[in-house]
Amino acid sequence: MMLRAVVRRASSRASTGLGKSLQSSSRVAAVSAQSFHSVSSTHTLVPRGGHARSFHHHSCPGCPDCSRTVSRSFQGTTLKRWVRPFSSDSGDVVEAVVPHIGESITDGTLATFLKKPGDRVEADEAIAQIETDKVTIDIASPASGVIQEFLVKEGDTVEPGNKVAIISTSADAVSHVAPSEKVEEKPAAKPSPPPAEEPKVESSKVAEKPKAPSPPPPTKQSAKEPQLPPKDRERRVPMTRLRKRVATRLKDSQNTFALLTTFNEVDMTNLMKLRSQYKDAFFEKHGVKLGLMSGFIKAAVSALQHQPVVNAVIDGDDIIYRDYVDISIAVGTSKGLVVPVIRGADQMNFADIEKTINSLAKKANEGTISIDEMAGGSFTVSNGGVYGSLISTPIINPPQSAILGMHSIVQRPMVVGGSVVPRPMMYVALTYDHRLIDGREAVYFLRRIKDVVEDPQRLLLDI
Fold it and tell me: Which of 150, 162, 245, 458 lies in the 20 to 30 Å Cα band around 304?
């Protein structure tokens, strides 16, 4: 009983002390709040630097009076939003970037600039060219304006999205670029006359001294050592990306395939007669000239249909047989060799083939051919005869398994009907992958091309 009485007495004292401490603390908070409001009523809140964060030392959280005071202090105050400018002092600017090149190409080399800083360009006008492994692509200006500067140099490797040039859409940019060129030209012309007199004296002195000792040594060295060509008559030029790509693919072809070439000769008399007989009517109806290339494309389609293995390719441990005929044609340009593709050649007639060949050849020579137009292909036809080649062994274009080589037409004496007569003859060559194609199929393939070209009527009768 005594112990319970002591516990009750101690707890009552503790609760009484705690209540007193809470009452005293509340009185202190009330006094501090009143003192703050008294100060805020007499103290004017002035924005420091015009930023909202300057008022945190005058407010207390959760107090409505402080919030009203701070909000009243913002009245009449202009708050500015600072944004990083995206225009120069002379006006707005735009940036020319590298466009999307293709799925299989990740970068390219900036080959050349078509414009200079200070030149005026229009929207979509080409300002530079990018050279890739397969094709040359133009970089167009996104808007009309004046080129301020280029951000890359010729020969640099660029990727899609990289910035190439800064173009000012303001006309005032011309005044900034033009004087810089003039200032550079003036000082370069002035210092040229004064040093003209001094080098004359030095050159005469230097020229007199080495004359005596120089003749004896070269005569002794020339008798013992071989004369090498001077280095100053040699030029070292970096390879273009297209040339490097062609070199790599051709070398890979030699290292991968078991290359073998078989030859035959074709009498071009009937095909040339067919061409000369119907060329005018063909042009009037189809608007394109009838050439010899379309005859060989049709012959190649017929031969591929008779020998499907030539249209196939090895992939690892499997053989892929293609049930379509996409024929690539090799086109030589000033920048290198490109191989556009005639897609669905087995579904085309002579007119469709001639139109496609002319369109692809024009784009290749102008450098406007796209990557998609050169992708794929199951067989290649190369016409070296346009350059005067009499005979050659073409190299397979991976991932194909064979290539047909055409050559120049030459009048040669041939035995026809027991008599010797002149005939327009052409040598044809078929290079094939001997891992997949046996000699029998290769010879039959080339023989089929010979039969169709020498007698085009076989295409009509399918024999």
Answer: 245
DSSP 383-397: EGGGGT---------
DSSP-derived secondary structure letter, 235: -
434 is catalytic: yes
Q: Which of 156, 280, 372, 438 is catalytic?
A: 438
User: In this predicted model, which residue has the larger pLDDT, 17 or 347?
Assistant: 347
What is the model's pLDDT at position 243? 83
Cα–Cα distance list, 239 to 105, 202, 247, 255, 367 (Å): 18, 42, 10, 22, 18
> Which one of 138, 434, 451, 455 is the catalytic residue?
434
CA-to-CA separations, 213 to 201, 210, 222, in angstroms, rounded? 21, 6, 16
Lowest mean pLDDT of 22-36, 337-351, 370-384, name the range. Answer: 22-36
Question: Rounded CA gap, 260 and 430, in Å?
Answer: 8
Q: Are strands 259-267 and 136-140 parallel, antiparallel or unpaired?
A: unpaired
Q: Provide the pLDDT for residue 103.
A: 67
The number of CA neighbours under 13 Å toward the Cβ of 17 is 6
Measured CA to CA, the distance from residue 135 to residue 369 in angstroms comes to: 7
Residues 6+ apart with CB under 8 A from 189: none
* pLDDT digit string, tens, across residues 388-420: 999 999 999 888 999 999 999 999 999 998 999
* Catalytic-residue membership of 326: no
* Predicted structure pTM score: 0.59
